[in-house]
Design a protein that fits this description.
The protein is of the alpha/beta class. It has helices at residues 24-56, 74-91, 105-127, 134-164, 178-190, 227-234, 249-259, 304-320, 322-335, 370-376, 394-401, 409-415, 428-431, 451-454, 462-474, 478-494; strands at residues 5-8, 11-14, 17-20, 170-175, 196-202, 220-222, 238-241, 265-268, 280-285, 288-293, 341-347, 353-359, 419-421, 447-449. The strands form 5 sheets. Strands 6-5-4-7-8 form a 5-stranded parallel beta sheet, with helices on both faces. Strands 1-2-3 form a 3-stranded antiparallel beta sheet, with no helix packed on it. A two-stranded antiparallel ribbon has the order 9-10. Strand 7 (238-241), helix 7 (249-259) and strand 8 form a beta-alpha-beta unit. Helix 1 runs antiparallel to helix 2 (74-91), helix 1 packs antiparallel against helix 4 and helix 3 packs antiparallel against helix 4. It is a multi-pass membrane protein.
């Protein structure tokens, strides 16, 4: 089949089909890929050069020890090693647009390519009886991998800054039933770091404009049979398909064919939410992709490993901040009448009540007016928070902004009532309003910090607070705890979302 290429400006035509010659997305993705390549070259060559200099006390080095009568210096070895390393990084797709800038897949590929390189080196050295200086490799491997990761993190930080300024976005058109499309559009909007910007929605015929909320979201551009027209109208770079009864496997295949000449990606959502990647396994059954979802990890969040980590972390924090605790106690005592600490009943794991300790940030009679405040602000007892709360003291407002009032909760961790990371501690009136789903929050200990802390703190809606807590309970891992602790430090030091 022959194709004729015609057209001008930004659009070409192949046999009557419009083709975007070079979209804005392709432009910035290509530029970013080139910059990543330069960073990788610097990291790899810098690592092998440093390994040679450190191991052999300078650039000069003895020849490689091997049985052949030819002398090869370590400068040649370093060049070959760096070239093979960069080739594997390219072969593993570490700079493909699908993995760059978000998630952990980019770093997984970096590690896999690096380990594969040094695994191949070990096999070659064994087969051909080549004696490569172990100290040289022991320096080059970790130094190169660390430099690669640091370089990617630096560009990821830069990319987030660009996206915060409205640049480097992927325009996405969401297709699906009103409910599913609403959820997907909200997911894209709630994760600006992913780089997706929803430019429109297509919903099944009969529900256009009827059930999809467009008050503060994207416009409905048509039904799920007019996706191509909506793509042209919106300038979308990708089409994300959510659950809909009208699009089966055959329709999705035809949609992929139609989008291909336009240079538009197709994304298919599996219809599940708040599932950690570690619980997902891709499988092909008779040519059809399937997602296997591992069971929730409730029991893992109760493990002795987590309890030991909590104990060690709490002791370390309390030792480090002991002078600060004394200073805060003096400030609270001198600026308002009442005790230094505030003891509040919270509901812990398995619904067992305990006394949570905090620095007092409110007036001593604050609890006597809480019911009136709840009624005045809508009467919703779940996750009750109010800005400019008249009960908060001047010092208490500062403590709350930077979560300093919560430092004594590490004593609760030592007592075993709380964990360092976990769901938000609940009061009895909130637990009384729980349904069966929400009671899953009580399967693990509440935490000093958690997903709620790094995702908006007091700015969260009750629904988002519950969703994040349930997501943590079901997807627990030690890596997740460490990541949340690291993110908490940044959120707290900025004082985001606290009052």
């Amino acid at each position: 089949m022959s194709y004729e290429l015609t057209g001008n400006g930004d659009v070409d035509v192949v046999n009557g089909v419009e083709v975007l010659r070079r979209t804005q997305r392709e432009s910035w993705q290509t530029a970013l890929g080139q910059r990543l390549a330069v960073t990788d070259v610097i990291a790899v060559f810098g690592a092998v050069a440093a390994a040679q200099v450190i191991r052999f006390d300078g650039p000069a080095a003895p020849p490689l020890a091997w049985p052949l009568p030819y002398e090869i210096g370590y400068s040649v070895v370093s060049l070959a090693l760096a070239g093979g390393w960069l080739a594997l990084l390219h072969g593993y797709g570490t700079r493909t647009p699908q993995v760059v800038g978000t998630g952990t897949e980019e770093f997984r590929r970096l590690v896999s390519a690096t380990l594969r390189l040094f695994g191949v080196l070990a096999i070659l050295a064994l087969l051909f009886r080549v004696e490569v200086a172990r100290g040289y490799l022991a320096i080059a491997l970790p130094a190169g991998l660390i430099a690669l990761v640091v370089g990617r993190l630096a560009w990821r930080w830069r990319l987030r800054r660009w996206r915060a300024k409205g640049r480097c976005h992927i325009a996405v058109l969401v297709v699906g039933s009103p409910e599913a499309a609403q959820a997907m559009a909200s997911a894209f909007t709630g994760d600006p770091g992913s780089g997706y910007r929803v430019v429109g929605v297509c919903v099944p015929a009969g529900s256009v404009g009827a059930q999809f909320d467009t008050s503060d979201g994207p416009s409905v551009l048509g039904d799920d049979r007019s996706v191509l027209e909506a793509v042209r109208r919106s300038g979308a770079d990708s089409v994300a398909v959510a659950a809909t009864d009208h699009l089966g496997p055959a329709e999705l295949r035809r949609m992929a064919w139609a989008l291909d000449p336009l240079g538009v990606d197709l994304i298919v959502a599996p219809g599940v939410a708040d599932i950690a990647g570690e619980r997902l396994t891709n499988r092909l059954v008779a040519g059809m992709p399937m997602l296997h979802i591992d069971p929730p990890r409730y029991e893992r969040a109760k493990s002795s490993r987590k309890a030991l980590f909590d104990l060690c972390f709490a002791v370390t924090v309390l030792v480090l901040v002991a002078p600060m605790l004394v200073a805060i106690a003096i400030a609270v005592k001198m600026t308002s009448a009442g005790p230094v600490f505030y003891l509040s009943e919270r509901i812990g794991r398995d619904g067992i009540a305990f006394r949570m300790i905090k620095f007092r940030s409110m007036l001593v009679d604050a609890d006597t007016t809480v019911e009136a405040l709840i009624e005045r602000h809508g009467g919703n007892p779940l996750f009750f928070k109010v800005k400019d709360d008249p009960r908060v003291t001047t010092v208490g407002r500062f403590l709350r902004k930077y979560s300093l009032d919560e430092l004594p909760q590490f004593f609760n961790v030592l007592r075993g009532d709380m964990s360092v990371v976990g769901p938000r501690p609940q009061v009895q009136r909130e637990v009384d309003s729980y349904d069966g789903e929400m009671r899953r929050r009580l399967l693990v200990k509440p935490g000093v910090t958690g997903l709620w802390q790094v995702s908006g703190r007091s700015d969260l809606s009750p629904e988002d607070s519950v969703r994040l807590d349930l997501s943590y309970v079901e997807n627990w891992s030690m890596v997740l705890d460490l990541a949340l602790i690291a993110r908490t430090i940044g959120v707290v030091t900025r004082g985001d979302g606290a009052y």
